[in-house]
Amino acid sequence: MHELAISRAIVDAAQRHAEGRGVEVVHVKVGSLRQVVPDSLAFYFELVARGAACEGARLELEPVAALLRCPDCGREWDPAPPALAVHEPLPAGALPPIPGFACPECDASGEVLAGEQLEVEWIEVDEPDPAEVKG
Amino acid sequence: MHRTRIRVAEDALDANQTIAAANREDFDRAGVAVVNLMSAPGAGKTALLERAIEAGLGETRIGVLEGDVQGSLDADRIAHLHVPVAQLNTDPGFGGECHLDANMVRAALAELPLAEIDLLAIENVGNLVCPAEFRVGEDARAMVCSVAEGEDKPLKYPLMFRSCELVCVNKIDLLPHIDADLDRLLANIEAVNPDATVLKMSARSGEGIEAWRDWLAALPRRVAATA
What we know:
By secondary structure, chain A is α+β, with helices and mostly antiparallel strands. Chain A contains three helices and six strands.
């Protein structure tokens, strides 16, 4: 659901850097803690890009796994974010897996080292050849 | 034509963050502490604000910014309590957005008597997903989770639960009538956000309202102390 708003933000950032040139590819790093559904983001991206410099551009998503670190004991771990219920219905009576944001060792609250990215890493744009500019 | 790769390395929400920072500066200059109050629709954000205001915030002068897709039902409720209130609708001009962003709040700044208040409560659009992504210039984030929503919600919406320093567990008066497991709800909140302050309350019975009222009333002092 937040994918619509996120696609708008991605398209805006890409167009600002494209400075009027047509955009062919937009490469975005997405941390697993952002709970972005890739198909949904791709769907909205295409809609939002219509009629703008990003129209028809390919959206490349690079997933980034989550990593937490305990400020007390230094242990690092992946909190294994919960699977989205829509994709994997749980058996009746089963509880969803609990992500561990507290240190499995000493229970302190973990610092996020990775997994919260939502970063437009690079874009590819069409650049006119020098000859074309002269002509 | 040839293709050129341009390095961007920019958080997609940077543009929003920039405007949020500008809002925050304006709030700081006016000496107003801001709480961004979020929840699913119907969890009780407006009712809890009403109860806190009725209970009395002491010397803290509160103002409220109501965010909704449509209508002014919530702002009308707050206005009855004789505190400054402004309504922000995301429907006209903002594409019916399901959350407030920094730019929308910026557009509403002129309607808020910042010089006359110490605390601004921004009631976000009811939604457990999108509002978590967009800072609006707040000092603190708080959320309401009603027990009727089910104990699994922190696990399904960890982004929201992790972004808030206070979780108001509302509608505890309903516990005898529903299957929700309060202990499991509290354990799930603890699992996704071990640092959160959790307050149990009922807007209907009034139980636990004092602690929530005290948290709100103390926010301006707390913000001033860390400035």
